[in-house]
UniProtKB/TrEMBL annotation:
<feature type="transmembrane region" description="Helical">
    <location>
        <begin position="6"/>
        <end position="25"/>
    </location>
</feature>
<dbReference type="InterPro" id="IPR003744">
    <property type="entry name" value="YhhQ"/>
</dbReference>
<keyword id="KW-1003">Cell membrane</keyword>
<keyword id="KW-0472">Membrane</keyword>
<dbReference type="Pfam" id="PF02592">
    <property type="entry name" value="Vut_1"/>
</dbReference>
<comment type="similarity">
    <text>Belongs to the vitamin uptake transporter (VUT/ECF) (TC 2.A.88) family. Q precursor transporter subfamily.</text>
</comment>
<feature type="transmembrane region" description="Helical">
    <location>
        <begin position="30"/>
        <end position="46"/>
    </location>
</feature>
<protein>
    <recommendedName>
        <fullName>Probable queuosine precursor transporter</fullName>
    </recommendedName>
</protein>
<feature type="transmembrane region" description="Helical">
    <location>
        <begin position="159"/>
        <end position="182"/>
    </location>
</feature>
<keyword id="KW-0813">Transport</keyword>
<comment type="function">
    <text>Involved in the import of queuosine (Q) precursors, required for Q precursor salvage.</text>
</comment>
<keyword id="KW-0812">Transmembrane</keyword>
<feature type="transmembrane region" description="Helical">
    <location>
        <begin position="118"/>
        <end position="138"/>
    </location>
</feature>
<keyword id="KW-1133">Transmembrane helix</keyword>
<feature type="transmembrane region" description="Helical">
    <location>
        <begin position="85"/>
        <end position="106"/>
    </location>
</feature>
<feature type="transmembrane region" description="Helical">
    <location>
        <begin position="194"/>
        <end position="215"/>
    </location>
</feature>
Amino acid sequence: MQNELLWFLMLIAAFAMVMISFRLWGKMGLFIWVPISVILANVQVVKLVNLFGLTATLGNIVYASTFLVTDMLSEHYGKKEAQKAVIFGLVSMIALVVLTQFALWFTPASDDSSQEHLAAIFGLMPRIVLGSVTAYLLSQFHDVWAYHFWKNRFPNQLWLRNNASTMVSQLIDSIVFCLIAFLGEFPFSVVLEIIFTTYIFKWIVAALDTPFLYLSKMLVKQKQIADLRD
């Protein structure tokens, strides 16, 4: 159960860092967390681990924390600020891909020992990049839209708008990425299995981020966020 314990601890650590960033720097702290999480997720995703009897990639937790961030921005700052965060994440993703490819194109020195390791992490296939960017845009913009859709209809049900928006967005992300990246590369049944296992872990993370959204509401109510004090 070591992997499962570490997975849970990493989840708590990621959400705690989101809350600390919000507490210390308000909106700017949330904006800063988005590129951090996108870059970390793209590095961690290359590692496969066994969790609860299933094979999964790391990176799901850190990436899923971006949905908590956009929900917090939507709740406390409005739809336009949440959409800005999505764009920040997209720009950081593109920058990561472009600049790491340049690094790989440099001819390494004769005594270099890092080229093969960097290539293993950043040597991305075009379909992976296309799937990642497309899934990110569709799922994140849906999350912002859906959050406000449910908020307008059930303004007093924070848990509903948080989970209804994030869980559907996570499903969109899993389906779009896996279909673009893996369809034709693996049998369709295998692609479906990857979608299912990936979404299960994202669903769990989405459910567990709800208390942190309530915590953010409490911090705002107690006037502990500098840029939200009356």
